[in-house]
Amino acid sequence: MPVNRSLRTFLGASGALAIAISTVLITATNSAAEPVDYGKGDGAEETGGSDKNGIYAAARITYSGSVAKDGGTGNVTPADVNWTPPPCWYAPYLGAKDFKEKMSKDIEGQLNAPGMGGHAGAALSELQRHYEDEYGWTDTPGYKDYNVENDGKGMFWAAVENPDEPDLLKRSSCNDLPFWVENGEAPPPQYEQAITPQILAALAYQHMELPDTEVTLAPEAVTKVNLPTWAWLDKAVFDEVQATAAINAPGVNLQATTTAKPVALKLQPGTEDAETYPASGECVINADGSIGEPYAKGKADETPPCGLKYLRSSGDGTFNLQATITWEITWTGTGGTGGDLPNGTFGNNQAITVQEIQAVNR
Q1: Which run of H or E residues covers position 274?
Q2: pLDDT tens digits, residue range 237-277?
Q3: Number of neighbouring beta carbons within 10 Å of residue 142
Q4: Which of 322, 320, 325 has its CA nearest to residue 284?
Q5: Dist CA 288 CA 232 (whole Å)
Q6: Distance between CA atoms of residues 301 and 341, nearest Å
Q7: Whose CA is closest to 246, among 197, 182, 194?
Q8: Number of C-alpha atoms within 13 angstroms, CB side, residue 292?
């Protein structure tokens, strides 16, 4: 019988319930019906199918394209300091029969643990009723016998934490109980953090690896005081890159591709005793996709459209020239979805030796 309150609120003080749910979600990593395992990097595979125990899924988000290896975080720094990837989300977990096997076993184990009683024991009993005896609440129906009569027609979805989110509270904020979703249907609207192409796009952004693009300089690594240094990037080594995130499980097939297009170069000389061209240090992209202009013989006395000039020697050391590229980032996904993501930046450092021009007295 539904009740007009959240079971999650009712059970909020129960550490035992949290243990029971976390046990269901993170154990049995070697079983055929292992939990979904996301964010494991380029080339990760997903499986799905059925056996005598019913539909199961051992699905994971897979990454392809220009992404960090082994599931690592990429090298893109969002220009918007307030933007962050999703800390958690809900995704397909197990079919009804496998979910019953897992959940009922863990609930029984907790209920039979020494000292389990009082509020904690009552909380686990309410959880058991939710999945066995149709005990529900507003907008969240309960289930009869773990919904096994619909096995193969859908999956229970569960929370997944982003392992790269440093804030534990944010990472664990997807704390609703596992819920049922019919194959081909959207999750109930109250689960705003259910996996979508937009969430996949944000994860692709998080794992995107931009190329190490070293700016061409003339003079190359050793220049002179008050001598203009030309800087440029050819289109051939400076092109857009893409990263794709996808998830495939019974009844769910979603993907999103994030595209980064270079749009500007910012030069920071590594010392205040320098000038940049233009004065802002921001070199915009040319019509042909390049940045700046290559140095050619006879241009020594000209002002470069993109470059810098050091006003003092680096002495026995070097100046750390930082060349930061700004990338315009967009995404497209399943069902014609798409949009913009915050611009990203990625910089390279180059050691520059600046020498005094020696005068000769005659």
Answers
A1: strand 274-277
A2: 678 899 999 998 888 899 999 999 988 999 999 999 999 99
A3: 18
A4: 325
A5: 13
A6: 42
A7: 197
A8: 30
Helix (H) or strand (E) holding 118: helix 118-132
DSSP per residue, 281-302 = -EEEBPTTS-EE----TT-TTS
pLDDT at 236 over 80: no
Task: Decide: helix, strand or coil at residue 130.
Answer: helix
Residues counted in the chain: 362
CA 76 – CA 30 distance, rounded (Å)? 33
Q: What is the pLDDT of residue 226?
A: 93
Mean pLDDT of the chain, nearest integer = 83
The CA distance from 74 to 51, in Å, is: 38
Secondary structure of residue 262 in the 3-state scheme: strand
Torsion of CA 293, 297, 301, 307, to 10 degrees: 30
Distance CA 327, CA 243 (A): 13
Quote the CA–CA distance of 291 and 306 in Å, as a whole number: 8
Distances from the Cα of 225 to the Cα of 119, 262, 269, 299, angstroms: 76, 31, 13, 17
pLDDT in tens, 303-321: 999 999 999 999 999 999 9
Listed range (141-150, 283-292, 338-347) with the worst mean pLDDT? 283-292
Q: Has residue 65 got a pLDDT over 70?
A: yes
**What is the C-alpha separation between 221 and 112, in angstroms, rounded?**
71
The tokens for 320 are: 């750390």
